[in-house]
Amino acid sequence: MNFYIPNIIQLDYMWKNFNIIKKSLESISDENKIINFLTRIKEHGLIATYKNKYYQWLPTDNKRIINNLTICQPYEILPMFTVFI
Question: Which of 16-25, 46-55, 72-81 is least confident?
Answer without folding.
Answer: 72-81
